[in-house]
Amino acid sequence: MDSASSPPSSSSSPLKRPTGQVLDGSEIMELVANNQVFSSFVDHKFHELDTDKDGKLSLKELHPAVADIGAALGLPPQGTSLDSDNIYSEVLNEFTHGSKDKVSKTEFKEVLSDILLGMAAGLKRDPIVILRIDGEDLLEFINSPAYEPEMIATFSQIHLPEGSLRDDIVKAFENLTVEQGMPPPSDPWVVSDIVEPALVSCAAGENWDKPVSQETFLLEFKRAAEHVAQRLKEQPVIVAHSENTFDGSSIRRLLSNKFELDKSLNTAIQSVPKDKTGKLAKEHLQLALDLVAPLAGLPPLGALDEMDKLLLDVFEMVDADDGKAVKEDEFKKLLTEILGAVMLQLEANPISVSSNSVVHEPLACSSTLLTPST
């Protein structure tokens, strides 16, 4: 899956909900649950990674598996983002337990099973819909009653007095969504292979560098969209589309289950540094919350601006940056209070987001990790 994806944005009333193949984690669950099949899969993958054939995987030999897991999680390649690199490091530490230089097949299988089950749980909670965008939905949109009012609204937002027709048309395509039949224009391939050739073909003989009226824009954009639809018909684009609404319900379920809550809090604080007296600095509450986030149905810190703002407000409420250290029980109490405060905020004002990634390679069980090489 290509890591270039449109940034999460608040969902609006779509023309229609996208439909397509749904990846809900069930194939991954079936793979791990079938011990014979999963063992065979692990044998093949281990043999593929064990390039020196010594029966163990070195850190260098583990890197391709870690890279595949990162790609399956939608992360950019290693070295392009500090936050993502931290996640890659955590995945590698899972395999090596933070200290081992070599990993046996048994250890590899156990960790891989845990990671895949975690991915499956995430897909079950937030399924991914695989869409084939072939121009039909775009043609349907530009010929529908919704076209004129929506594009007039878009024109009023993007048009500058000194702007040209070409500028307005390019910006307008950037504002279209998959619901309107447009693959994410943030993807370089979509721009270079779909949008730009379409604009060249439909702008032939036209002067698109002059200022434009609203009426001309509506007419010319529709003509440009027809050319884009033709390109999509010739080269359909596969898009992984996901939608999610953070409404606090997952946090409420976690808080209502004392056993799971205590287990998740205890697991989280094991990764939080302690001082010589065994106390934990309140500044590490963000780290602890990030570790609890998957069970609480929350995105990682830094993944969603709206959520980050909400969390920062809650951290300020508990004086998380006052520089103090507290005992373990107090730390867990504060973390529980933070979860409760976030839950109440989301119940009052849910945050809805959607994201889209262009898939440039065949997708099998949502990850190249699950596709044995031949």
Automatic annotation (TrEMBL):
Transmembrane intervals: none
Keyword Calcium: yes
Compositionally biased spans, kind Low complexity: 1-14
Name of the molecule in the record: EF-hand domain-containing protein
Region (Disordered): 1-21
Cross-referenced PROSITE patterns: EF_HAND_1 (PS00018), EF_HAND_2 (PS50222)
Residues of the EF-hand domain: 37-72
Keywords on record: Calcium
Superkingdom as given in the UniProt entry: Eukaryota
